[in-house]
Design brief:
heterodimer, A: Beta-Lactamase, 4 domains, 5-stranded antiparallel sheet, B: alpha/beta, Transcription Regulator spoIIAA, globular
């Protein structure tokens, strides 16, 4: 006895330690805990077996003593009580440790576990009693020892049953628990175990002192038994199966109660376990909870189909709304709609028309013939209600439908359409009158609305993917175009050049380029294609090709313009034209030759005369006149430059840049800027102009591409 | 700022009044107007540019694209009351040599009747 106490106490300590450790559980403590659990379990089993055997021995001993009135009373009642308490505690704690947590909502598996492991105990005990009765009546002998053994075994089975049932019901009771319920349960468990003290101290619980307390505990139990949330999650089938299992468990309870009630206060026995208040209360809880579960399952059986339907609807909504993430296609969404609505409304026939373009095509059919659809559709067309929300819950009352002699009595038409699109129409038929009540219609509408949303979202996703691709391609075009514009000009000591270019969109229509014609001659071209965007960018690339192609032959600027016009006439669309200016600078001759084709006038600073002016030359844009008569519209000019002269070449995006008052930057302001900055380096002149331009326009978005080239001729000549 | 295009018919003359800015979007409307086969019934098209504040290359492109067609049909296209700023755009591009641009309505009528 003392030995067991020693075993037992360290266990409690260990358990307390484990509880403290658990919250900060890392891998090793978790592992240690598991190890400790296995150890604790085998320890508990040993304690249970030993205490039970000792109890049996003690009981038999006292029974023997009782039979021989003369003998000395060896057994002590306290020993019985202590052993009982130890046995009960060890069995309950073992179950407490080994009952698994609920996984998912497999309640049937749980109930089966309860029945197969605990319920069977009751049937074993029945077999035992019957066996005992048969032996005693057959041999016709009264054996108190045998009776005590049977009683003792039944006690063991009862405790096993109660412990198992207690903790399995606990798990189910605490399903979807809240904090309050958890606390309530913890207190209940504590109070229940504290009643063992009554047994330990050999108090009679039926005394007036303890009865009210026990009654209160009974009410507490009653309150706990109202927590049966798990029953709602059982489907109709599962409920009927669980009814059988719970029924069997209920019978087990009854068997035990009957057995121990029968032997209560029996003069043949030295020990009476019905005096143990703990067992009574545990049995009260198990019995009441089983009964409650049974009754709740039984009475919720008729309504379970409604809950099943609702939860299925919910699941279907979920599936519909998740179909975008799962990358499902439109036909799959329509399949889902068709199946879900039929199930939600319990329709007996249905069909779905899909709109491809403007013609409806029957894509889904359920127990209806094409010929019947055709007839119904004709009738609807005659009433002009084929594409609108329409419910007829009594088709027979309508003469038109009556003439069709259809086997259905209710019809609902649900168009699947958004503000912009008509996706399809769903027709549902039922063979009863008033088939589509308001509740059903609401559910159906929710389904169709969700479908519309899903389809539209699917299309939006596809569209945005497409846009993303376009953007990506535009980015590539922009990179390609950037590469078409030279980054570096040949740097020479006789002139310096600085460039600026900024496109209004990803791709622009402005361009400039150069070509070294010979050692002393360089050709510089600037141009602007009418319009913006991709088409302008294409024409710009074309112009670059023409420039490089024609200038290989080293021709005069006016000749270049004529030939370029002729080439562009064949490929430029009617409303497009290109303005351009070509300069051929010859530093050996200290002069440049240029022609202007509708391009902005060249701004020039003459260092000798200290004068700033625009070259006023004639010249028609390219692609405006597309025949030989263009040749009369282009002029060429030759100009001798002086060191210190500055030439400013630009596109109309510079002079036509506007501020928020719609004023243009203008040629005058540009010229003024040059009069103020001509003495600077080309790079500084450019920066000054651009800064001034940005001051003028503010930091709004660009309306047109801007290109600016500043060329400054210098005094020092190379190779001289 | 958008474009308002109105027209007035006097016998064989159609007077088109442009009010606003002729940019990429409004030039589409002008193109529709000029593409109308009805317009070929008139021998003179006078374009009043008094309230034309701005013309973009797209707007110019519209006139350019119809220029040849009107010339072939011997329809006179005359611009008048043009603001300096807009006229400058025409001149830079060299269109003043191809198109008839006069200072006022009377002048436009005299030239049209030649």
């Amino acid at each position: 006895m003392a030995n067991e106490q020693k075993f037992f106490l360290p266990y409690i300590l260990l358990k307390l330690q484990a509880r403290h450790k658990l919250p900060q559980s890392n891998k090793s403590t978790g592992f240690r805990f598991m190890l400790y659990r296995t150890n604790a379990r085998s320890l508990l089993v040993t304690v249970a077996i030993i205490s039970w055997s000792l109890l049996l021995a003690n009981v038999l001993l006292s029974a023997e003593t009782m039979r021989q009135p003369g003998a000395v009373k060896l057994a002590l009642p306290y020993v019985d009580n202590i052993l009982t308490v130890i046995f009960i505690l060890s069995v309950f704690f073992y179950q407490r440790l080994s009952t698994e947590n609920l996984k998912g909502i497999d309640f049937i598996g749980y109930l089966w576990n309860l029945f197969s492991k605990a319920g069977i105990a009751a049937y074993l005990s029945i077999a035992l009693i019957l066996g005992y009765r048969m032996i005693t009546s057959y041999a016709n002998l009264q054996s108190p020892l045998l009776l005590h053994i049977v009683y003792q075994v039944n006690f063991g089975l009862l405790v096993l049953f109660l412990a198992k049932a207690f903790y399995i019901w606990q798990k189910l009771l605490l399903y979807h628990k809240n904090r309050f319920l958890q606390i309530a349960w913890d207190w209940y468990e504590l109070l229940l175990f504290s009643t063992l003290l009554l047994t330990l101290l050999n108090f009679n619980y039926t005394s007036y002192v303890f009865l009210p307390l026990l009654a209160l505990l009974g009410f507490y139990t009653l309150f706990l038994c109202t927590n049966l949330k798990w029953v709602a999650f059982l489907t109709f089938n599962k409920k009927s199966r669980s009814l059988v299992l719970i029924g069997a468990i209920l019978v087990s309870c009854y068997i035990f109660i009957r057995f121990f009630h029968q032997f209560a206060d029996s003069p043949d026995l030295v020990i009476d376990y019905s005096d143990v208040a703990f067992l009574l209360l545990a049995m009260l809880f198990v019995g009441l909870y089983t009964l409650a579960a049974f009754l709740v399952s039984l009475f919720s059986l008729p309504t379970s189909s409604v809950f099943e339907q609702k939860s299925e609807d919910l699941l279907n909504f979920q599936r519909l709304s998740q179909s975008i993430q799962q990358g499902q296609s439109e036909p799959q969404v329509y399949n889902m709609l068709f199946e879900s609505t039929i199930r939600a409304s319990d329709a007996s026939a249905a069909w779905f028309e899909l709109y491809k373009g403007t013609d409806p095509q029957v894509s889904h059919l359920l127990t209806i013939k094409n010929e019947q659809i055709e007839r119904i559709r004709h009738l609807l067309m005659a009433y002009n209600i084929q594409n609108i929300d329409y419910i007829n819950n009594n088709l027979d009352r309508n003469p038109g439908f009556r003439d069709l002699t259809l086997p259905w009595k209710s019809l609902i038409i649900l168009p699947i359409k958004s503000k912009q699109h008509q996706f399809g129409v769903l027709y549902l038929l039922k063979d009863i009158e008033q088939g589509f009540d308001r509740e059903t219609v609401n559910v159906l509408r929710t389904f169709t609305n969700q479908t519309i949303l899903t389809i539209e979202n699917l299309r939006l996703v596809a569209e945005s993917l497409q846009n993303e691709r376009y953007k990506e391609e535009l980015k590539i075009a922009s990179t390609v175009q950037e590469n078409l514009i030279p980054k570096t000009f040949p740097s020479d000591s006789w002139f310096e050049i600085s460039t600026h270019s900024k496109a209004a969109k990803e791709v622009g229509g402005d361009f400039y380029d150069f070509l070294q014609l010979s050692e002393s001659r360089i050709a510089i071209i600037i141009g602007d294609v009418s319009g913006k965007g991709i088409s302008a960018a294409f024409h710009m690339a074309q112009m670059k090709g023409i420039f490089h192609g024609l200038m290989q032959q080293d021709m005069a600027p006016s000749e270049f313009m004529k030939q370029a016009n002729s080439a562009l006439s064949r490929c430029l669309e009617k409303t497009s034209f290109i303005t351009s200016a070509l300069y051929i600078i010859d530093y050996r001759m200290k002069g440049f030759m240029f022609a202007r084709a509708g391009h902005c006038h060249t701004l020039y600073y003459n260092a000798m005369m200290e004068d700033t002016f625009y070259f006023q030359t004639e010249g028609l844009g390219l692609g405006i006149i597309r025949d030989k008569s263009y040749n009369n519209h282009v002029r060429e000019m030759y100009y001798d430059y002086n060191p210190g002269d500055v030439m400013v070449i630009y596109t109309d995006g510079i002079v036509e840049a506007r501020n928020d008052k719609s004023d243009e930057y203008g040629e005058d302001r540009l010229r003024y800027m040059l009069t103020q900055t001509y003495h600077l380096e080309a790079e500084d002149i450019k920066c000054a102009i651009i800064n001034d331009l940005e001051d003028f326009t503010g930091t709004g978005s660009l309306y047109d591409d801007q290109t600016l080239l500043v060329i400054k001729f210098k005094a020092t000549q190379p190779n001289e | 700022m958008s474009m308002k295009i109105t027209h007035e018919i006097k016998e064989s003359t159609i007077i088109i009044t442009l009010d606003g800015e002729l940019d990429a979007s409004s030039s589409v409307i002008l193109d529709e107007e000029l593409s109308d086969p009805e317009i070929m019934k008139y021998s003179k098209i006078l374009v009043d540019c008094k309230n034309l504040h701005y013309i973009s290359s797209a707007g110019l492109g519209v006139f350019i694209s119809h220029l040849q067609r009107f010339e072939d049909a011997q329809i006179k296209l005359i611009f008048f009351n043009m603001q300096d700023k807009v006229r400058n755009v025409f001149e830079i591009l060299g269109l003043d040599l191809l198109m008839t641009i006069v200072s006022n309505y009377e002048e436009a009528l005299t030239i049209a009747d030649e």
